[in-house]
Specification:
About 40% of the residues lie in helices and about 15% in strands.
């Protein structure tokens, strides 16, 4: 709500609240996640009464002390040339060999220490014959090194309690390579061991021919797994937007030709050139004495010397306009990319050279004005799209890209083949912003959004994880800027409020759209729509300023809104019996769980559960489930449409997330005590007096239609589109609607389906966080307590079970992407409901055992990347529908081997007890995840949702630690026999159009279809 926001709720330009630097970046991660959806019901947490007090790591150094901390009057290396006040919680050091480090004490989560090793070299540093080497070297560094035998890194870190992929990871970008390790239970002995292992990895990787032969197939698999159409667009767009610069043709993944030509010697040469102390920054934040952390850095890296002479980084190049272009409108390179399965999108970029700056307060004030200018334009563009314009969405975003260009990107999606009108409409809004100053009311609105984001960061600084703080330093180093405490960010903003004038904003807006060259790319499914010359002509055509999207001042206040109903009465109020949580029941049947605590200062988590979830939809209404996820909130509340919802939440910490779960609908938000009462009003009003604006439904329908065909461009896209539909026996409730179904859907039909659903079923409200209990009870009485009596859930909805499909032969789907790409899945039905919850936790251990074996097996058999994943899903609100799923992105010819591998793993799990070491590699990371997750309110909320009416959920908390971390080989054998060996699995393969699978049924659907 309000301004375009990032994941933390801050305006998008401020995704790093602990840095005054306001730029975003992209990266290529070594660990690819097939399915980002969190399995909330299985998120391991630990009751507070089971957690021992934190034991910080102790300095194991006697009289020794770090020698190279920059203390007293010394200016820390990260603040040289800057007048930004130091964040005094960080301690900085620089050693004679040139290595720099930053350390700090942080107790979130308790006993964890986060380590980041940053090498100032990425794909942009590669020579032509080395493309992909930075990323390949990242893999080989984990493969084998001075203190780690071949393949021993992952098991070793698992034994230390670190989960592979989340606690142990690395990433390569154009400008850096970063190794990441989050160490749980970080006592002095464990930290000593970890630093020793890391020093061996970074300083002395083995880089053998055997290691290269083992890692090269994995890297090539990662390259293969990228969606072909999207990857082609990314590569060609980069060539156009960054024409003449190194970034134009240096993707971190590299090329197949350069990768297959790699030798241990050429990889070693890249390592020796760039892996040097003067190119290295080590950041450590965690629950330990920072001086002890500094001493560890100095001990294990202080005597490191680079091999050979120091090498300066290459010249990244500048964006330059073609000869003869018009200085007043310097349109340069343009490209039209034809991809039949991708929706229309257009991007044009105003390019400027990137130059390193002194990161001063004045510089950051300028960035704040830039960000506010973009926020005003983006709000106007969004308003135009909501009203039913010529484009689905449009956005302006300034970005300093890989220290290569300072660019302002304009991106939008035309609704039809008439891209010229969409381009003209977007340019018209921008032309108006360049020609005429904004109103002070517009400026004040965006300032209010910024201020609440910065103030919230100050309130919540005590609960920021050490891993996040370490990542902030790494990002600041990468873009050559400083870091600042949240208080400093807020102080700078508040100290420059008099500079947020219409004239200053206009000046910065004009600068954002000025530069030596403008470049553009249009992606279209139809080659006849445009060519590069037509795109260039359209950009050169003068455009009239369009002020119709300017937002007129409208005063909207919660005080002016009608009540939900007569305030209700509290029928019952009693302790829940755990953690001091109160259970409240109102006379109208609404129940609530309230936990007032200061574990997360300044933050309140609110969740509302109601109705019957996915069970509510009859087959003929399934299309409205999908549209509801996108349009239900936007269709309005009472007297408030989308624009009014934005306006009324200006300067507030409010949200409105909606989700359809297996057995319940949910609203959720992160808010704060000052805004809690109004947040509750919005949620209750959506149930008690919903609004039914048509435009959000029409827009959601258009977006779904544009996206539909793009799913068929890759195996991963097909899984996203059809996995659940196929897994649950083509149950229409899990179907991604196709264009004909979407065409038949109407706003009137949307209301007919959703209006009764909002009025059905019990309501449970959970409020966890820092709030006043009495004031919240009164707010609940005036909102949810004031709702009319709820209608019962129809019997036919409650009777709709979710069951996994069963078939002796694999189900085969076809994609239209690269011929070398495929995906495979094997799923075994398990169960659901509260009764079996303890067993589901043991199934998580079994799934993790399966995951480790599958990863090893597929890498050995086929050179698969890190994509194989085993997922345990156990829905708690319904009695059926749970599963264990093993998924992977692989080559088409490897699908039979994948199915065979899963069968063999099942046989082995049933017939041969797992070893104690193998079990420890799973239970130790689970134990650490339990300990860390238990420090946040959100995880408690997930575990206790539904507990206001089902006391079993409270009782089950008391066995959670045991259930997730204590088991036996015999218990794992029994579970494998019960759930894997004795049940018919469902197998699914996604292979390229035109190919055949040996076991594919004759009735397989046409390409891209079902």
């Amino acid at each position: 709500m309000g301004a375009v926001r990032g994941k933390d709720g801050a305006p998008r330009a401020f995704l790093r609240p602990h840095s005054l630097s306001l730029h975003l970046g992209t990266h290529y991660s070594v660990f690819m996640s097939l399915f980002p959806r969190a399995l909330r019901h299985l998120a391991p947490i630990l009751p507070l009464f089971l957690i021992s007090s934190p034991v910080p790591a102790q300095e194991k150094t006697g009289a020794l002390a770090p020698q190279h901390l920059q203390t007293g009057a010394q200016t820390p290396w990260i603040y040289r040339g800057s007048d930004v006040p130091r964040d005094k919680e960080w301690m900085f050091g620089e050693m004679p060999n040139g290595l720099r480090y930053a350390v700090r004490k942080n107790g979130v989560p308790p006993e964890q220490v986060s380590i980041r090793v940053r090498i100032d070299a990425g794909s942009i540093h590669e020579q032509d014959h080395e493309q992909g080497f930075a990323h390949l070297l990242e893999h080989m560094t984990f493969r084998e090194s001075k203190y780690l035998a071949n393949g021993a890194a992952i098991p070793t870190f698992q034994r230390l309690g670190a989960t592979f992929g989340s606690d142990t990871n690395a990433e390569t970008t154009p400008t850096q390579t970063v190794y990441k390790l989050d160490v749980p239970e970080a006592n002095s002995g464990k930290l000593e061991e970890v630093f020793k292992l890391l020093s061996g990895m970074i300083r002395e990787p083995t880089l053998s021919a055997k290691g290269l032969s083992e890692d090269l197939p994995i890297v090539l698999a990662e390259k293969r797994e990228q969606a072909a159409a999207a990857q082609r667009v990314a590569e060609e767009s980069r060539k156009t937007i960054f024409a003449g610069q190194r970034l134009a043709n240096r993707l971190p993944i590299g090329t197949e030709a350069t990768l297959t030509a790699a030798t241990p010697q050429t990889v070693r040469a890249f390592h020796d050139r760039w892996y040097r102390p003067e190119n290295t920054v080590i950041v450590v934040a965690g629950d330990a004495d920072p001086r002890a952390l500094a001493l560890l850095v100095e001990r294990y890296f202080g005597d490191w010397k680079g091999r050979g002479p120091h090498v300066e980084p290459p010249d990244f190049g500048d964006p330059v306009a073609p000869a003869g272009s018009d200085p007043a409108n310097p349109v340069g390179e343009t490209a039209v990319l034809v991809e039949p399965d991708l929706p229309r999108t257009m991007t044009y970029a105003v390019m400027r050279p990137w130059r390193q700056v002194n990161d001063t307060i004045v510089y950051n004030e300028g960035l704040l004005l830039d960000s506010l200018s973009q926020a005003i334009i983006n709000r106007r563009l969004e308003s135009r799209a909501r009203a039913g314009g010529s484009y689905l969405y449009a956005q302006v975003n300034q970005d300093d890209v890989s220290r290569t260009a300072d660019a302002t990107f304009v991106s939008f999606a035309p609704l039809t083949e008439d891209w010229q009108t969409a381009l003209a409409d977007v340019r018209g809004v921008i032309a108006d912003a360049i020609a005429t100053p904004p109103t002070q009311e517009e400026i004040d609105r965006e300032m209010a959004e910024f201020e609440v984001a910065f103030a919230s960061s100050v309130e919540q600084r005590a609960v920021l994880a050490g891993s996040k703080l370490a990542d902030d330093i790494v990002q600041a180093v990468d873009i050559r800027e400083t870091v600042a405490a949240p208080e400093t960010v807020l102080l700078v903003f508040q100290g420059m409020k008099d500079k947020f004038t219409p004239e200053n904003v206009l000046k910065h807006t004009r600068a954002l759209f000025s530069g030596p060259v403008t470049r553009s790319v249009y992606v279209t499914p139809d080659a006849s729509e445009a060519n590069a010359s037509a795109l260039r002509t359209a950009l050169l055509t003068p455009i009239a300023a369009d002020g119709s999207a300017r937002l007129a001042a409208k005063s909207v206040s919660f005080d002016q809104l009608p009540p939900v109903g007569p305030p209700g009465t509290i029928a019952e109020q009693s302790p829940l019996g755990i953690l001091g949580i109160d259970r409240v029941k109102f006379a109208n049947g609404v129940s609530a769980l309230l936990w007032s605590n200061n574990a997360e200062p300044g933050r309140v988590t609110v969740k509302v559960r109601f109705g019957s979830g996915r069970r509510a939809f009859a087959p003929e209404d399934a299309v409205y489930a999908s549209l509801g996820e996108a349009a239900l909130v936007g269709s309005g509340v009472g007297e408030l449409g989308q624009e009014e919802l934005d306006r009324i939440s200006t300067g507030r910490r409010m949200g409105f997330d909606f989700e359809i779960e297996e057995g319940v609908f949910t609203f959720a938000a992160q808010t704060r005590s000052a805004d809690l009462a109004d947040q509750l009003y919005l949620f209750a009003a959506k149930l008690g007096m919903p609004r039914w604006d048509a435009n959000p439904v029409i827009r959601a329908r258009a977006a779904a239609k544009l996206a539909y065909e793009s799913y068929a461009t890759s195996p991963n896209g097909m899984l996203e589109r059809d996995l659940e539909y196929e897994l649950y026996g083509r149950d229409s409730r899990f179907e991604t609607p196709a264009p004909p179904e979407l065409d038949a859907a109407t706003p009137e039909g949307f209301r007919k389906v959703w209006e009764p659903l909002l009025a059905q079923g019990p309501v449970e409200v959970l409020v966890f966080g820092e709030f006043d209990k009495d004031a919240t009870l009164e707010a609940l009485r005036r909102t949810f307590g004031a709702l009319p009596a709820r209608q019962p859930i129809p019997a036919d909805a409650l009777a709709r079970a979710t069951n996994l499909a069963s078939a002796s032969d694999p189900r085969v789907l076809f994609h239209r992407g690269d011929d070398s790409q495929a995906a495979a899945m094997v799923a075994w039905p398990t169960g659901g409901g509260v009764v079996g919850l303890r067993e589901s936790r043991q199934l998580q251990i079994l799934s993790d055992l399966f995951n480790n074996r599958l990863l090893d097996e597929m890498r050995e058999r086929t050179g698969a990347s890190y994509s194989p994943q085993v997922v345990n899903d156990w829905p708690v609100d319904v009695e059926t529908g749970g599963s264990i799923k093993a998924l992977a992105l692989i080559r088409p010819q490897d699908v039979p081997a994948y199915f065979a591998a899963t069968e063999q793993i099942v046989r082995d799990l049933v017939t041969t007890p797992v070893t104690a070491d193998e079990l420890a590699r799973v239970t130790e990371p689970l134990k650490q995840s339990v300990s860390r997750a238990s420090t946040g309110n959100t995880f408690w909320l997930w575990q206790l949702e539904g507990a206001s009416e089902d006391s079993r959920r409270v009782a089950l908390l008391r066995t959670l630690l045991v259930d997730y971390t204590q088991t036996t080989p015999e218990a794992m054998q029994a579970l494998a026999t019960k759930y894997l060996a004795s049940r018919q699995p469902f197998r699914l393969a996604v292979i390229p159009q035109g190919q055949q699978l040996a076991t594919a049924p004759a009735s397989s659907p046409p390409a891209g279809g079902r």
